[in-house]
Design brief:
By secondary structure, this protein is α+β, with helices and mostly antiparallel strands. The chain has helices spanning 125-142, 180-196, 201-212, 253-270, 327-332, 341-350, and strands spanning 2-7, 13-18, 41-44, 51-54, 90-94, 106-111, 150-157, 169-175, 216-219, 223-226, 235-241, 283-288, 309-314, 316-318, 321-322. It has 6 helices and 15 strands. Strands 1-2-5-6-8-7-12-13-11-10-9 form an 11-stranded antiparallel β-sheet, with helices on both faces. The longest helix is centred in the middle third of the chain and has 18 residues, at 125-142.
Length: 354
C-alpha cells in the first residue's frame, strides 16, 4: 500500500491509498474554496448522561446531486470535485460538513472506489483489502489526536438509511468521548469479569453461538459471523475475528488476508435476502473498537478485554417494508424485532454464494 497525503483548497487533509507503489499523486485542488467554517459543539445530557453533537452548519451539506455533479467522483477537466486527481483507488478526506471538528473530534469520508455506479459488494478482494488498510491506518492516526477517545469506521448504504450521496463511500467518526453503546458493553464486561473471576464476556458470547449453531451465518479459519441471540434488527450479523483483539491494529496478517473474502460474501448475501429483482438492500455496517481514552469508569476493565467486531444490519424487514424506530424503540430504547434471529440466520445461509 502507498499512502499520499495532500491538502484541499480550503486546508482540509486528503489522503490517497494506492495498491501500487509507483503511482504519483500530485494533482492540485483548483477550486476557489473559502476556509472551512464549522460550528460543531458537543453537549452532555445531564439526565441520560450521553452526549449530543450540535452541528447547524450541516443543514447546507450536499444533498442528492446528479451523478455528473457527484463530489466523490474523480475530477475531470473543468468538472472539479473533492478528489483533485483524475483517478483513485481509495481516498480519505476531512468531511466538509463534519458533525465533529476541532476540540470536538473529527469526521472523515472514505471513498471505496472511483466507480460511481459500484458498491462495496462489487469490489475485488484486493480493493476490499485496501479499504481495510485505510481503516486501520486512519484508526492509528486519529487515535493520537488529543481530542479523540474512540474511532468508529462505518458505512451507511441506501437512501432509506439517509445517505445523501450515491457514490460508494463510508465515514470515520473520531469521538472526543467513549460512545454510549460502547460504554454499555464495557459495563457488561466489568460485571461479567467480576462475577466469573476474570472471564471474558465477548469470548463466552462467541463460544455460546458456535456451540448452539442455529444462528451461525458463516465460519472460517479466522472469522465467525452470526446473528446475535437478542438481535435488535430484522437481519443483523456480527462478525468477529477468532483471535480477540481490541481494535483493527491488532488483527494479524492471516485475519487481514481472509477478511475481504468473508466480508464481501456477507454483503452479497445481504443483497440476496429478499430475492431476485429486489433493489439493493440498505444497510449500516460499522467496526466496534475499544476506546483509546481512559477506562477509569469501568473498574477492572482494560482495552484488551474488548473484542473488535463488525456489526452489519438492514432496516428492511421484508420486501418493500422498513423497520421504523417508533414509540418503543425511539422513546424507550426497547427494540421489537419482527424476524426471529434463527430465521434470519437460516435465510442468510440459504443465500450463500455457490
Amino acid at each position: 500500500m502507498k499512502k499520499t497525503s495532500t491538502r484541499l483548497a480550503d486546508g482540509r487533509e486528503l489522503i490517497y491509498y494506492d495498491s501500487r507503489d509507483d503511482v504519483v499523486r500530485d494533482a492540485v485542488d483548483r477550486r476557489p474554496l473559502d476556509p472551512t467554517v464549522t460550528t460543531s459543539e458537543v453537549r452532555r445530557d445531564p439526565l441520560l448522561g450521553d452526549s449530543v453533537a450540535i452541528a447547524s452548519h450541516r443543514q447546507g451539506r450536499t444533498y442528492h446531486p446528479p451523478a455528473n455533479e457527484c463530489p466523490l467522483c474523480p475530477s475531470s477537466g473543468d468538472r472539479l470535485s473533492e478528489i483533485p486527481d483524475s483517478s483513485y483507488d481509495v481516498v480519505v478526506f476531512e468531511n466538509r460538513f463534519p458533525s465533529l471538528a476541532g476540540d470536538s473530534g473529527r469526521c472523515e469520508v472514505v471513498c471505496f472506489t472511483s466507480d460511481h455506479d459500484s458498491s462495496f459488494a462489487d469490489l475485488t478482494e484486493e480493493q476490499a483489502g485496501l479499504v481495510l488498510d485505510a481503516w486501520t491506518d486512519r484508526t492509528a492516526e486519529l487515535s493520537h489526536l488529543p481530542s479523540v477517545e474512540q474511532v468508529f469506521c462505518f458505512e451507511n448504504r441506501g437512501a432509506e438509511i439517509g445517505v445523501t450521496l450515491g457514490h460508494p463511500h463510508g465515514q470515520i467518526y473520531a469521538y472526543p468521548f467513549t460512545t454510549p453503546r460502547t460504554a454499555l458493553m464495557l459495563r457488561s464486561i466489568a460485571v461479567h469479569k467480576e462475577a466469573t473471576g476474570g472471564g471474558n464476556l465477548f469470548d463466552e458470547v462467541v463460544a455460546r453461538e458456535e456451540a448452539d449453531g442455529s444462528r451461525i451465518v458463516l465460519s472460517t479459519d479466522h472469522w465467525v459471523a452470526f446473528v446475535p441471540y437478542a438481535a435488535h434488527w430484522p437481519y443483523e450479523v456480527h462478525l468477529y475475528p477468532r483471535r480477540r483483539v481490541p481494535d483493527l491494529l491488532g488483527l494479524d496478517e492471516a485475519a487481514r488476508t481472509e477478511f475481504p473474502k468473508v466480508y464481501l460474501e456477507l454483503l452479497r448475501r445481504f443483497d440476496r435476502i429478499f430475492g431476485e429483482g429486489e433493489p439493493p438492500t440498505p444497510y449500516i455496517a460499522g467496526w466496534h473498537q475499544a476506546p483509546f481514552g481512559p477506562l477509569e469508569d469501568f473498574e477492572g476493565v482494560n482495552r484488551d478485554d474488548f473484542a473488535l467486531h463488525l456489526e452489519l444490519f438492514t432496516i428492511r424487514r421484508t420486501s418493500g417494508k422498513l423497520k421504523f424506530l417508533a414509540g418503543s424503540e425511539s422513546g424507550m430504547s426497547v427494540f421489537i424485532n419482527d424476524v426471529p434471529p434463527e430465521t434470519a440466520a437460516q435465510r442468510l445461509r440459504e443465500v450463500a454464494s455457490s
